[in-house]
Amino acid sequence: MLVGLQDFLDARTRIADVAVRTGLHRINAGMFAAAGLTAPKFELFVKAESEQPIGSFKLRGAYNMIASIVEHDPSAAGRGFITYSSGNHAQGVAYAARVMGAKAVIVMPGNAPIVKREATAALGAEIVLVGNASSDRKKKAEELAEEFGYAIIPPYDDPRIIAGQGTCGLEIVEQLEEATGKPVGEEVLILSPVSGGGLLSGTATAAKLTAPGVKVWGAEPELAADAKESFETKTLVEWPAEKTTRTIGDGLRTQSLGRLNFEHVLKYVDGIVAVSEEEIFAATRFYLQSTKLVPEPSGAVTLAAALFHAAELPKAERVVVILSGGNIEQELKDQLMAESVLA
């Protein structure tokens, strides 16, 4: 069963005191000129989910699901929660569990960025390391949940996760109308990163239920373009871990869309575009050098799509790119700050 408008509205109320209404920032022509780039022919806005307390959108879905579980079964908080994640969802679950006064166990891949692993541990979560494949950590989490009675909080394939992430779409529609004084319609394009599909499916569904004419596309790395293949073939495909782990976008290495997410994507998403590693680096550099926003490469794929793949995207007067997270490794940040945007 697909998530409906009331689910998104309920989620927004549920998470209001924990997740923040992040900013919608306009990128002006001067910023592009300073970076040696030609300004696009559309107004560009950034939905900065990097401004969440954990530095990414993942708090929305994680808290919505955990709070929903506790509402229906208060004893669940005493047993604790478990998830499997490369980093941002891990922090979302750890943060949400801490708010609830509950234990959080996180199964992470051995190649998870240190910055995300340390941040998760700092929130009080117990970390279990396994192999690099997303299937490895899911299997381990299920084994531990069976053994200890933890409630599993999946990264994306659950209606409560989708409803939480979709609150981002509700905010985009509202904030864009506030910023421009115009209703959101077919002249607007929203670009969301896509991996397992929680953010894309939630944003697309919520946005189209409130502004039916809006266009919503996903963006992902060429090296992990399973979602694009699935969308274009209308068949859910899975890429092997040795392929998806090649991308710098560590948050986008999931091997396939979730099944429920795929259903929403097929109904509400208009297209998916894939970007190169060089384009991801260029977009990340632009954020770091020309704006006050801090991106991680996974979050910069949407800007890469807007800047370098405009010919593949539908024409729009206003484009909103979701900067899904800002948890970047310091070494990579320093490296990119020292390079030219088009290096």
Could you characterize what this model shows?
The mean pLDDT is 93. Helix 1 (5-15) crosses helix 8 (159-180) and helix 13 crosses helix 14. The termini are far apart. The longest helix is centred in the middle third of the chain and has 22 residues, at 159-180. The protein has 343 residues and is α/β, with parallel strands linked by helices. It is 48% helix and 15% strand. It contains 15 helices and ten strands. The strands form two sheets. The protein has a six-stranded mixed sheet with strand order 1-2-10-7-8-9, with helices on both faces. A four-stranded parallel sheet has the order 5-4-3-6, sandwiched between helices. The chain folds into two domains: 5-56 and 159-337, Rossmann fold (3-Layer(aba) Sandwich); 58-152, Rossmann fold (3-Layer(aba) Sandwich), CATH 3.40.50.1100.
